[in-house]
Design brief:
2 domains, 136 residues, mainly alpha, 0% strand, AhpD-like, homohexamer
Chain lengths: 136, 136, 136, 136, 136, 136
């Protein structure tokens, strides 16, 4: 399938207009997440079906059951998105975190850690602190 | 107190050479963390005692008991440090995370999430995906 | 010429309102690009004519004919802009790339590379991978 | 398989010490790239075989034959890595680019574009330039 | 106090609706800055009073009288905010800088430096320039 | 002149080995800075003379006499370099700042601002704070 509309303001492909291969991914997203709708990220990626399939496959593997609990995983996703300044990602993974039980106090604490880590990362870099032997 | 040595390759102030006000912070760090040594970050910050006190006070408040468990908090710290490319911070907070029980599988999963979030943050930005109404 | 209006929401200087030195740059931009309009980036920079001249001179030298073909050069510009999250720059250099023949499939492939590079950059950093002798 | 050694200074797993599943990935990397050695990135990822397989599968799909030529794809990888400050990634993808024919003049031109894009990205952001209607 | 409303689109707490502890911080902000209003950053942080108090305390210490003049301090704040792409921060600290006497020519010169530093940072990184002995 | 050696670990071109056009830039750098040596950044850029000339011309224009004093300009350069994690740039512009009179207390204060700005940039982004009308 072509990716004709893809560009800096990529059109969103609705389920009704999607090809069978795109619908198959949409169906798997909804089944995996036990939801009945698809958010815009996937509708934009659907312009390039191989990328849609690849990214969904990655998300499913990385964000699925593993060594960390589901809420911690979403919090990590939000922490990175805040550091990079991706508002869409903060909104979407923030919503996912709330669905998995995140309280406002947990959001506030995560954000405080993200802010402080961004600060101390620069203090360390600015002072050129050598790594302690005990950390190696 | 002056900060005479401070600069891009800041000297490290050992406990034996520290002023009483710096020693007081060092003592509080060791007591709070139940350890008998001070890592280089604090020894570098000690060149500017008001900043040493301020940053320790922030770390103590933000990383102390709260709404998230101690291991999750360290994982968030590492996730931000990896995103920013601060090797010292990855080493020091990685060590703290292991002290709080982080397994290698948890480290690997955290890192996989950080990598994937950095990827999808850019896909979202490059496509200019609008925030879904349901996320607002 | 003064830069009186310059600030975080810089006014745009239209051709009709521009000084002769600003018009000279605008004319050169339109002649070089074989177009009849000026985009907002230059209209904002025009508040500070020396910077307008300097940046246009840089763009003209760096983005002009050289060792890489014009489309590759625009794709590199977009790749950096996506990594940094500059929406205006993605839009303007994305448009320039399309003018130079970029297909949607090429845009999608560039974006996939940008995403993956942002991911593996962090995996490398998080694991502290040493540079192979063969790469030195 | 466990990922016992994984952490901020991840051990490298040589072919001789690798499990069959890791060797299978190593073999595919060498066959695909028509080379007889494995670089450290993969040896570090091998501590977590599912991630090794996932990332290799992504790289193979994204960096394989497509809409852009192989050298352009490596140049894009280097451009992102320079922007993010990942020295290992600059070295490894810089070597890959040279293997695909990159000249020093092309490297220099790519780097000049990366530098200039990082500059103009900030000028745009600092001035708050609105996106032109024609770019939408 | 709880932080019930905190999340990716945090509600703003007006003075009239604020608890006594939040009002105490608002009062101190207005008194310190000799102004009669509170900007949105603080109204959002007020959802989590301990963070509101902590961040205000930090800002007051770091941005108060010291070794650098007040305008230089605001320019540094803007320079970092431009590099990180935080539009709100550019607007708020840009306004603070103007209140402290920043001219448009100074804004333009600061921005030119920020742009150029972002460029040369990448040239240095891309070429792997070793630090000169004289700089150590 | 060719740029044959240019790549991720670019060779340094000493004055004795430089072409006349490169020596002309080196001479201008030393005369402008009233010094008798050239630092590694320029020796690396010299592999690509047009870029050497272009970047020096930019640095000379932007960092020369203007609306901000020379020390403030170097501090801004360091602030950006710390935020981006460019150790070479922190070392070189930190040295330049000391040559222009920077005290350790000023370095410490600059670094504290950089750290705090990196923190509050993320708090603002994470909470999605809207820009106040008064800042527009």
């Amino acid at each position: 399938m072509s990716a004709e509309g893809m560009g800096p303001s990529t059109p969103l492909i609705e389920y009704a207009d999607a090809s069978p291969e795109v619908r198959a991914v949409y169906d798997d997203i909804m089944a995996t997440r036990k939801t009945d709708w698809i958010n815009n990220f996937w509708k934009a990626l659907a312009n390039d079906p191989p990328t849609l399939q690849r990214i969904w496959s990655n998300i499913k593997q990385v964000m699925g059951p593993g060594a960390l609990d589901p809420l911690t995983k979403e919090l990590l996703y939000v922490a990175v998105s805040v550091t990079n300044g991706c508002s869409y990602c903060i909104a979407s993974h923030g919503a996912a975190a709330r669905n998995k039980g995140m309280t406002s106090a947990q959001f506030a604490e995560m954000l405080a850690i993200v802010g402080l880590a961004n600060e101390t990362n620069r203090l360390v870099t600015g002072m050129g602190v050598p790594i302690d032997e005990r950390f190696r």
